[in-house]
Amino acid sequence: MPKQKTHSGAKKRFKTTGTGKVMKQSSGMRHNLEKKSSELTRRLNREQVLAPQDAKVIKKLIGEK
């Protein structure tokens, strides 16, 4: 059986931590930033940990076990 190819879109958007959790960039940091408070932009600039249900699907796309 052939190997599973890595999903190109997923590998650009997600990364895994050392413990195996999946991280993604928060949405809302592309435009209209002058209207948002500095407190909000700091919070949005952090990366988020995905829920375990979503992480299971993403790990298959990335090619991890």
TrEMBL record:
Keywords: Ribonucleoprotein, Ribosomal protein. Coiled coil: none annotated. Residues 1-34 are annotated as: Disordered. It comes from the Bacteria. GO terms for biological process: translation. InterPro entries: Ribosomal_bL35, Ribosomal_bL35-like, Ribosomal_bL35_CS, Ribosomal_bL35_sf. Residues 16-29 have a biased composition (Polar residues). Belongs to the bacterial ribosomal protein bL35 family. This is Large ribosomal subunit protein bL35. It comes from Microcella putealis.
